[in-house]
Amino acid sequence: MARTVVISGGGTGIGLAAAEAFAADGEQVLLLGRREEVLARAAERIPGARYCAADLSEPQGARRVAVFAEREYGTVDVLVHSAGGNGRLEQQPGFEDPLDAVAHDWTVNFRLNTLTATLLTEALKDHLATPGGRVLFLSSIAAYRGSGSGAYAASKAALHPYTHELARQLGPRGITVNLVAPGFIEETGFFGGEIPGERRQKLVAETSTGRAGHPGDVAQTLRWLASHAAGHITSQVIQVNGGAERGH
After folding, report:
1. How far out from the chain centre does Cα 177 lie?
2. Which of 8, 162, 152, 187 shows the shortest CA–CA distance to 82?
3. How distant, in Å, are the alpha carbons of 7, 35, 154, 230 from that of 42?
4. pLDDT at residue 90 above 60?
5. All domains of the chain in start order, with CATH
6. Per UniProt, which keywords does this protein have (predicted)?
């Protein structure tokens, strides 16, 4: 029987690759995001996919998705949190006081990467399949080593304790909760355009595999964690970075 897979940020990058992977298995896919036109184009590429546009960093957006999912599907089997991104690509107002700029940067990153995940999870928590539900968060290599933006790294790292707490909370219902932490992934729009050649070479050189990651690398990891084969794996962080960050 086909499962219902809800994917935030499902219109582009890793989220879209995950949607295509799950749809290839015959799953019902619901795409979420802020931009309706982007979701509509993505849904056209995926057989049977539907979409719901909402700002998941706001409670009313998460509520809207919960109402839609309950009405149209009843139960959510897999919840994938791919919404988020580099806060520096968002609109940047001019600030005279540098502290105002810092407050804005941290607020934007936590709204994009933390609130979108936590609000949607809390809104859909009671609708998760019991047993067999899967909740999957997207963290980042930056959560371990920092990045060019401390605010972005911290907003991803904040999902780790939330995941562990949620795993303990939902485990008795037979629901697993895990994180996937990608390293350098091309073809996502995270950098806002083509990454400079020198920086790309440096990031690739950090890997043991000698290549950049692709959205499909992460999508297939999410697909496996959502499978029945991974039913005894929960409260874990799975790194997908070609060995750029080792262990943990």
Report:
1. 13
2. 8
3. 12, 11, 30, 28
4. no
5. 4-240 (3.40.50.720)
6. Oxidoreductase
Q: Hey, which residues does 53 pair with through a beta bridge?
A: 33
DSSP state of 171: G
Supply the pTM of this predicted model. Answer: 0.94
Instruction: Judge if the upstream peptide bond of residue 59 is cis by omega within 30 degrees of 0.
Output: no
User: Of these residues, 51, 73, 152, 162, which one is catalytic?
Assistant: 152
In order, the DSSP letters of 83-145 are: ----GGGS-----SSHHHHHHHHHHHHHIIIIIHHHHHHHHHGGGB-TTT-EEEEE--THHHH
Distance CA 71, CA 242 (A): 41
Pair 38, 60: CB distance under 8 Å? no
Strand partners, 80: 7, 136
Q: Tokens in use for 71?
A: 């009405």
**Average pLDDT of span 17-40:** 97
User: DSSP H helical segments within the chain, as ranges?
Assistant: 13-24, 36-45, 59-72, 98-110, 116-124, 142-145, 150-157, 159-170, 197-205, 215-225
The CA-based angle 224-154-138, given to 5 degrees, is 15
Judge residue 55's burial from the number of C-beta atoms within 10 Å of its C-beta, 0-12 exposed, 13-18 middle, 19 or more buried.
middle
Q: 120 is written with which tokens?
A: 């949607």
Clarify whether 73 is annotated catalytic: no
Residue 191 per-residue DSSP state = T
Instruction: Flag whether pLDDT at 87 surpasses 70.
Output: no
